[in-house]
Fold each of these.
Amino acid sequence: MTPSEITDRLQSELPLTRAMGMSVVSWDGAVVTLVAPLQPNLNHADTAFGGSISCMGILAGYALVYLLFQERGISTRVVIQKSTTDYLRPIDTEITSTASLPNPAAIEEFLEMLKQKRRARLTLNSQVLSGKTLAATHTGIYVALLY
Amino acid sequence: MTPSEITDRLQSELPLTRAMGMSVVSWDGAVVTLVAPLQPNLNHADTAFGGSISCMGILAGYALVYLLFQERGISTRVVIQKSTTDYLRPIDTEITSTASLPNPAAIEEFLEMLKQKRRARLTLNSQVLSGKTLAATHTGIYVALLY
């Protein structure tokens, strides 16, 4: 899928991402990167709202799991079980969020568990940046359920 | 402040809360309750997007800290340092989020620390409900900085 196709899919599944102005800027088969402009995500201090930062962290991980299954033609429902965001510094420019697939062994274990139990859990970390500077880290536990 | 005044304040500080349709429905001096309709916060499974649920948890705690200072006439900047959401079950109706002030001793300790160090940290829990059913718990660490 191209970044623009992934953007369309996320925006159609999750209308709030349109209000946030979120779009996917790159996907190379291992790393996905999303951006959102500051304006719709502002807080009272003219930096990014903590809720928007958490959303961007959640979305990078969700996009990865979505792409992992999409590229393998596996139909699942993916939900988030736990989301943790550590805010390190304010974001005063475009919000960038990026996440990388885990190593192949961890992916195989996840897919094998899904096949056996029809349900499997994957922990994914994402980094949220202010421009090029790390501003928050997000850890999401995502659960996939086989249809 | 009335619920409608708090709603206006949050919506003007945080434009994303308008897109979410968030409003404050009650504040009795100890407990604040916020709601948001499902529609703008939907996910791919026609239940609430995990990011919206985290936002509602963050906002209930943030509203409490805001009100705590507002009622005492203390000017601070409040930022979130850490946000953790545990998603327990899907939300398929209006999203309700509620948070309660901690006990008076904990509040006094927080305000005393703020006076001494010009910076203090408060942990607040919020509950996010699907109608009347508990659907997620949120823990936020909020930092207040005295102007």
Amino acid sequence: MKMNKVFITNYSSTHFSLQNIEIKSIMLSVVQKLILNSRIPKNLIDGILVSSTSDSKYLAAQISESIGVQPKISVTIENLCSSGTNAIVAAFAYISAGLANVIIVVGADLYDTPGKIFATDESRGNYKHPIFWASLFTKAHKRKYNTTEYDLAIISKKNHDNASNNPYAYNKKTYTINEIINSKKITDDLNILHCSKLCTGCSAILVMSENYAKQFSETPICIIGIGQNTVSPTFTKNDLTSMESTQKAAMAAFSMCKLIPHKIDVAEVHDAFSICEIMAVEDLGFAKKGCGATFSNELYQTNNNKINPRGGLIGSGHPIGATGISQTMEIVQQLQNNAGKRQIHNAKYGLVHNMSAAATSSTVLILTS
Amino acid sequence: MKMNKVFITNYSSTHFSLQNIEIKSIMLSVVQKLILNSRIPKNLIDGILVSSTSDSKYLAAQISESIGVQPKISVTIENLCSSGTNAIVAAFAYISAGLANVIIVVGADLYDTPGKIFATDESRGNYKHPIFWASLFTKAHKRKYNTTEYDLAIISKKNHDNASNNPYAYNKKTYTINEIINSKKITDDLNILHCSKLCTGCSAILVMSENYAKQFSETPICIIGIGQNTVSPTFTKNDLTSMESTQKAAMAAFSMCKLIPHKIDVAEVHDAFSICEIMAVEDLGFAKKGCGATFSNELYQTNNNKINPRGGLIGSGHPIGATGISQTMEIVQQLQNNAGKRQIHNAKYGLVHNMSAAATSSTVLILTS
């Protein structure tokens, strides 16, 4: 089956902050900036996809009305923390299927979004708050693979360092390894500086069919790999050291574009907590299982910023519905050679890894210039 | 551009009621019945799309976990009252683009869903509640086209009559024209029996690529036409007698399958209020503008039930996220010659018309056996 190619051409974002603002207002400002930057005529915009865990309804139609477009497709797409990449996959599908040509995907959430707590069935008891599964993951990885406090601290240090070069990051402060290890303990295995911070933010990208992308951009970035998977919670399987949905999503994405993990020059991975980055580089195939910490240490010692150059979620903050879009925007900037101080030299292939709720769902996107 | 064909093979639904139930529970029961009826192996299900205006998050992943499937795609899709058909269009896109082969689209809402009031900007003032725009539409149509109380009452009578043959309908009571005209006045132009009733309900359909549809169904129904449009509110245009988004969606859907309106044998149209059915048959092209009432009267006098055979929203009730799925399910039953007492003889082409918020968004689907 031959798919029609789909491209990302432009992006726009707010700074991430703790601002209290109407969800529609923050989206409008970013969408308007995106339209201005991309010089796309409004009458060509035939899709507005919103990614958010806000309770506001009919947001895409409200935005359409406010900016004066009459899209064919206007919906909100929600899948908790991976809402952003799920909306990008939907945009891919609409365009690839020929139902639309020019789609704005805009993701936003406020620091206190109702999506911040996953109110699932009571039987999960204490696992309602993400810190608990992250603690379980951390303890399990330490036990099985001798992952150390120092290994975890390197992830946090590197991502905070990187975020200091990201103009949109919530937290631009940098920390020493000691400050991280000695930061406030939340659980036995989690310090505050190992956690991403829920915040307010909005990011948007412009997705186009091939004809339009070539007409409106000199550097369109092609979506060549898509993998998605939803599994039962990892912790029902007596194995808390790998994220099955991420492994399956990665396999599907690499298979779609016939690439191997070592070809990826730059990646944004879903470091909701430090342990997630170590597990992600393993489950995505960048490092062998159990060698994620060693892999990350080696990159750190050689000043190689290919993983989470914008600072990941730990450094940039986590405005839930915006996160997947913001990750993708970073990879687009990298592949367009437009990432400023964060630029990875000669980046040709980039990867986005976005997940939800203890890695029960994962999305992997592979992009190329 | 050649699209891959997409089919609907099976369906399942609850009765519509005023039941107070957990949104996830009602969805689970319907999805399980659908899987049982269709005999589809669970490992082939690669998409779960939820249509709902509920505030519950991550519903598709929760359902996946509970029924034991590991889909590639699991998201909630929201666009108020047309969430259902928007989710079906998304399923079409995923399958047509080759990202999935077998998708369950499940829509549900409770009678008191937060989607029942569209909390838009304050500037719209009294138009927050749907009854007000429906009153404006009614008054305008009466003034311009001499539409009468009797014309409106016929729509309500016919749809209540039809619902009495729909096992899933909320209200199976039938009414005389006099009872309708003399029912409780809500505004100058709207009686209670001209309004659809928000209720609790869940409907689901199974959507498949061509290979799978032919393997698992002897009567797969093909989605041949899709049209969608979102416009600014009709009432900003000084014309309250037509629904621009419906006109544009219909034009696009008919153009996609190269059919004309007169070829449609059976249609479910979005009669949120009686006036909407009169306007819809005009804006979909079944009747000339201003002749919707005459067209409807003629069908009624000749016992022709081709419009809203299941009783529409007025007869069946309106469980918001389920409505578009339930409408589509009726058309699938009709085209599979499986609609029992409601069967339209020799139905070959069917149409679904679903809309949101004073017709600011509309979706039109055209199906064939």
